[in-house]
Each structure stands twice: as C-alpha cells, then as structure tokens.
Amino acid sequence: MLTTLTIVYREERAKGALYLVLKLLAALRIMFFPNAIIRFNSMNVAAKLYNPMRKKHDPLYFLAHTYYISKYFTLRQRVQCAINHHEYELKSFVSEYTRQVYHSDGILLWKRSIDDSHFTIILMATNDNMANGNDRLEGDLSVVLSVNGCRLCKMSFCYLNANVFLPWSHMTMLISQNQTVVTPSRELYDRCFKKDHPQLFCLAAICGIATANEFKIVFGIKHDAQLSYQEIYKSGFRRSYDAFWEKSDPIEIDRHVYMLNVPLANHKGRARVHRGYWDEIVRNARSAMVGYRLSEQSIAMS
C-alpha cells in the first residue's frame, strides 16, 4: 500500500503542494478499510492498472477524487464497488483477459464492413488520461463503437455486487457513462445503419457481456447521479440516461439507478432489421467474452 501511495505522489507532485496534500489525504482514506487493503494488495491492482502507454497511473482512483461511479455513492460504497470489480475479474477471467483489456488494444466484440466503412465494437479499460480528472471514475471498462478507427460512441461500466442497491447479493454490471462523440464519421454510420442510434449498438454489446457472465439484470445510472452531470445540462443528461433506459422497460431503484432485465426489452417501435443488428452484436459479444471466462470448476475453486 505504501508503494501505491508513492505512485499517487509521483503522479500529482507537479500540480503543486496543496493539491498533492489533498490528493494524498483522499487516498489515505483507504486506511479506514483494513479488510479492503488486504484484498486490494492480494489482487495486485496497482500492477494490473499500470500501462506504460498511458500518462497517468492512479491505482487509488476510486478514493483520490471527489466521486467514483455515482455522485451518490458513500465512501464505503466506493470502496466496495472498486474491490468487487477487480475481484470479479480476477476470479472470472483468464489472465489473457487482463492483458488484452488493460495492457493491450482490448477485446474485439463485433465487427462489420459495409463498402469501405469498417465498424468495430471493442471492450477496453477506460482511459485514465482525462484532461480534468480521471475518466476511469465514470466506469472501469468501456465498450467503444468506432468507424474506420474513429471513436463514435462509448458506454462505460463496472462489475459490482447488486447488494449496493438491493437487499440480495449477486454480481452484475452498472452502466455509468453513455457518451456519443460529435464526429464526421457519424454520417458514415447513419448511411449504413439508418435510424439506429450508436448507443443501441453499445448497449447490445454490454448485453452480450452480461449474458456471457450469466447476469439476469444490469443497472443504468440515473442522469443526476452521473459524474459529469450539471444542472445547466439537465435536459441533455435526461435524454442520454433516464429516457434511454426507459425505452427498455426498467425498474427505478433508489435515487441511483434503473434496473434493466437481460436480455433487454426491445426498444419500442424498432423495425426487425434493427433488432437483427442488435441480436448479432449480442451473440458476437457473448461469444467473444465466453472465450476469456474461467471454467466453472476453476471459479468454484477460487
């Protein structure tokens, strides 16, 4: 843990003494959770997150910043969520999964070429080089839809125990970021997939990941719990989050999230051809993820 705190010091010392002290004090809150320290060290999370191709390395990201995943999470919930995420990956996936997702270019979940346009959906560790903070705070993993290598849409999530929100315990996923990038590549996408919003493709990929893990539900963050939410942008966040989840007949849970059933209910009013694309993405994503899953016997022994 001392090594981890040293990393925080090295990363932030250039920003000034006051900022560094505040950052270290925030990171030191891990000391309030001795059991979490043991679990954190046993998983070697610092080494897992280290990628020499990235400028920042912030292993205590879930404590060293103002928020993590939800603006409404308590300190204890933040620690629980982060530890659960990394424990689940360690116990559920082969080592090649970690290498591909955290230290390489990610896992290809789906691809399709139409004329000269090439579309991919990739699962990768969320970038932590955000200009004004740490993008990983909005979700440890990201499903990214790209057109000819240009990012079009990103949907981020983490693995967590549902007992954060519900009275029973089982692992699932919380989708905590839904972001579409304004890019000229959107014209190519619209030309090939008329009236099919990019977010739906990313959501289908996340559904495929969920089915590979045998999750029956997933959660979607509410608009005002999302980390980037500001009151001035309320209508836009409401469209990107609450209104988007509501098309899949969710159940509102507490003030944090919506609960969505897996497989997801088809978005209302969509033509069969669109559902065909979604089903293809779900199948491909599930197949890709199953290839990285540990056997049930190995999971039971871990």
Main sheet specs? 8 strands, mixed
Share of helix, binned: 40-55%
Structural class by SSE content: alpha+beta
Shape: globular
- In terms of quaternary structure, the protein is single chain
The CATH architecture designation of one domain is 3-Layer(aba) Sandwich
> What is the fold-level CATH name, i.e. the topology of one domain?
Aminopeptidase
Strand order of the largest sheet: 1-2-3-4-5-6-8-7
Q: Helical segment tally?
A: 12
Spans where pLDDT lies below 50 across 5 or more residues: none
Whole-angstrom Rg:
19 Å
Series of H and E elements: HHHHHHEEEEEHHEHHEEHH
Describe the structure.
The protein is α+β, with helices and mostly antiparallel strands. It has a domain at 101-301: 3-Layer(aba) Sandwich (Aminopeptidase). The chain is 41% helix and 20% strand. The chain has 12 helices and 8 strands. It has helices at 2-12, 17-27, 34-43, 45-49, 75-92, 95-103, 185-192, 198-212, 234-240, 242-246, 272-290, 296-301; strands at 107-114, 117-125, 141-147, 150-161, 171-180, 217-221, 251-253, 257-261. Strands 1-2-3-4-5-6-8-7 form an 8-stranded mixed sheet. Strand 7 and strand 8 (257-261) form a beta hairpin. The protein is globular. The mean pLDDT is 85.
